[in-house]
Amino acid sequence: MKRTFLGEFEEVVLLVLAACGDEAYGVIIWEQLQQQTGRSITISAVHATLYRLEEKGYLSSQLGGATAERGGRRKRFFALTALGSKALLEIQAMRQQLWQAIPDGKLQLIGG
Amino acid sequence: MATNREQTEPPRWADRLLEGFVSPYLLEDLQGDLQEIFYKRVAQVGISQARREYGWAVLHYLNPFFAKPHHRTGNPAPYPQFASLDPTMIRNYLKIAFRNLWQNKAFTFINLFGLTIGTSCSLYMLLFVYNQYGYDQQHAGAKQLYRVSTEVIEPGGDPFQLAPSSPPIAKALQDDFGEIMAVTRLFKDPGKERFLLKKGNEAFYETKGYYADSSFFQLFTYQFLEGSSQHALDEPYTVVLSAETAGKLFGSHPAINQSLLINNELYRVTGVYNETYGKSHIRAHFLMSFRAGGMVEFLRTSNQWVGQNLVYTYIRLNPKADPHQLEAKLPAFLLHHGQEQLAQVSIKKSLHLQPVTDIHLHSQLDSELEKNANPQFIRLMLLIAGLIQFMACINFMNMNTARSTGRAREVGVRKVMGASRSSLAGRFIGESMLLVTMAAVLSIPIVWLLLPILNGLLQAELPVMFTHIGPTAVILVILILVTGLLSSFYPAFYLSAYQAVNVLKGNLRNGYTSISLRKGLVITQFVGSITLLIAIIVITQQLNFIKTRNLGFDQQQKIVFTFTTPEAQAQRFAFTTSLRTKLAITQIGSAANYPGRWVGENMPMFYQPPGKKAKMGTGVWVNRIDETFLTTLHIPLLAGRYLTQVDTNRQVLVNETTLRKLTIPLKKAVGSRIFLDYQNLREDYTIIGVIKDFHYRSLKEPLRPLMVLTAKPKQLNYVVADIHTDALPELMNRLAATWQKLIPAIPFEFSFLDADIQQQYEAENALLHIINGSALLALLIACLGLFGLATFTAEQRTKEIGVRKVLGASVSSIVGLLSKDFLKLVLLAIAIASPLAWYAMNRWLQSFAYKIDLEWWVFALAGLLAIGIALVTVSFHSIKAALMNPVKSLRSE
């Protein structure tokens, strides 16, 4: 199987999800995303990414019990799968490696 | 009023949209999340802002990602309800459609070609027709604007309606009727078709200069680029220019308050208007104040209620007033003011109101300001556009059924795989929509490229269609939908009805109904083509008849020079004198009007036999000429003598028709006294000669009485010179040089008499061009259709032909066998088309006073042409089928 590629936004969503507690669903993730990244994001973009990640197998989801406050509609809770965790770890490792490859002093020049 | 529910919940349309679009497997949690956010936002920013945000958020879900069914781990995706609408399937359909088109290149080409021709043709014609609508809508309160037209009933003549009316009517209408809020008059000087505009060294002729009352802009809305419409024409000798005219005179400099010379009189520019703002039946290039001295001043203050029907009277009604009620009061009004004047002449007259917004499309009166739209022409355009498009559709239908043997297998396979009939039908419709859309896209550049040529042929002022993007798009979308549905309707239902089992077993039967339908369609195509063919022949014949008919004078090799300004007229004598010295010029005559450009005056004329009361009257055209004009045109004399230099303007010549109308015998004509009723003044004339009838106006009109008399020098606007030379360019160069020397301020211009006469038949020429073009296209499309059908038949009868050949049939007998069927169709089409064409052409010919007879050979010729063309088309396939090796066609058995 070829390595699945994770987009930048997908990666951020995965990370936010990983940081959330058990009860992570659309609205929570959306709010967290905006807070953590400081970007303004549409809810539809979050939904699309969540479903795409689920299709790719990085996430699993489950419907919760009925709630009254959202017009009786159930929440869909998302959780990281093993594949998702592995993908995040791999990315982290790769980043680490790349960071270490930067020669000393170069970053000062860049302004970091 | 919004209910409570609506005030506290997300917008319902957004929910509906979401529910309709988003895949049902995603809907619940999407909507839940959205609503949760919504209620949070309500608390933060208020209900209306939250509702807006909700709607906006929902719009973001309208992309294919959310519409497609999502497979979730744990719950396998159920079979989607509309598999055929799945994006993957749609992609597949498109792929198959393109492959199909690509595989049958010949069919695709024929269909695309026919459809492109049809769509281009329809697009142009529909744009043309569209452009005829919406005239005079730009004026504020356009619905309350009316024109007062005049109906004149001459003694012994047919009544005729004039667009203009007598000068004092406007003012009196406003005084007498409270419901009239404003009136204005417009005057187009019949003697001055062109004005010489001069500013510094710039001098050129400009047409369409009208005089208008100062109230003109209270009725008509014009967009002023310079100055304002408020008091633009209040002062004498002021002029308002169209932007184009202003540009010619002043370039990019402001024109306002500048002066210019119009026919050598000083005018001050008080405004420049944008002539492209709105379409109007008044297409003035410049408007001058009605207070401009001379003839204009005379008309402005005239108190003539019966004659002088020269000014266009417009009124603005109170929005509540009823135009019909007002019109009913007009006879009494006319009688009240003009009783005395009406009693003196035996002419009856009545006034009518025309809505200004209807004038361009519906008004066809005498002396219209502009050539208005011809409703018959518009109907014909629509009919032809529809016909050609329909013919292209028919081809498409026939082609598709002809290909059905091949397509049937695909249908069979798809049916076995579970495709429903409706999805198959939908696919055929979609496939033809694809082709029609391609044709529509192709037609845009075609029409765009041909627009100048077509406009030239039709004398149309159709703006480039990209200034009309909206209507063009609407027309194209409608064309695509109608054509696509129409052309795929039949194959969609015909092909999709095949039984999968039969198809795959190889039992393909074409029902009789489909065959006879196809034949019917082919006949329809040929009826259209043959009718148009007959129309071409008849119109060409009639136009030739007009061109070659002896008009009663010599129109060959005559040059016409125009002298309308006082400056030019002062030099006319010098110019004609120098013309006389040129060897090539044999005769020269001058006149106020000449055949081809005959505006003239139409007046009531009476004859008083000796010792009796005058009662015989007739309308008569009057022309003022010099003593050599009649001989220059070679108009023969029947009695008496031509005019001489010593004749007064009381000594006149009349034509034969005048004598007939006034019942004066030819022998007694010379010396008879007649009189004109001229502005209530009886003016007596003595006949000194009778000239042979000649057609001084177009052949659409019957010959009317004519009187010619000596003119004052400044009335002679035109000089006609009879030339006999092969070295025309050289002569014209010398004449131009002479003109330059004598009248340097005025550009040298001339025209040819025969060309001027032909100009009267512009509309007929345009019609011929349209019919010519469309007949050619129609025939081409019909032949393409026949070609397709021949392919089909040859394919169907391959085995039959094989058997016949094996049994010894000759090639020619087989060609005959195959062609015979088509010949029958064409013959039937001729039988149907002939009476149709006869009826239509007979009606058209009625518009001419002098016309050809419809002859049988016209129909025979058109029929033979159609048969010939059809045979050539069909023979390609019949010969191919006949020559085919029977081994090949029979082997599969």
From TrEMBL, chain A:
Domain Transcription regulator PadR N-terminal: 16-88
SUPFAM superfamilies: Winged helix' DNA-binding domain (SSF46785)
Entry-linked Pfam families: PadR
Positions of transmembrane segments: none
Protein's UniProt name: PadR family transcriptional regulator
Organism expressing this protein natively: Spirosoma endbachense
Automatic annotation (TrEMBL), chain B:
Pfam families, A to Z: FtsX (PF02687), MacB_PCD (PF12704)
ABC3 transporter permease C-terminal domain: residues covered: 383-496, 775-885
Gene Ontology molecular functions: transmembrane transporter activity
InterPro entries hit by this protein: ABC3_permease_C (IPR003838), MacB_PCD (IPR025857), Macrolide_Exporter_MacB (IPR050250), Permease_put_prefix (IPR047699)
TM annotation in the entry: 109-130, 377-397, 433-454, 474-501, 521-540, 766-789, 822-841, 856-879
Nucleus as UniProt keyword: no
Coiled-coil ranges (or none): none
GO CC terms in record: plasma membrane
Keywords: Cell membrane, Membrane, Transmembrane, Transmembrane helix
Location in the cell: Cell membrane
Annotated ranges, domain MacB-like periplasmic core: 108-331, 530-694
UniProt keyword Transmembrane helix present: yes
Bilayer topology: Multi-pass membrane protein
NCBIfam families named among the record's database cross-references: perm_prefix_2 (NF038404)
Protein name, as recorded: FtsX-like permease family protein
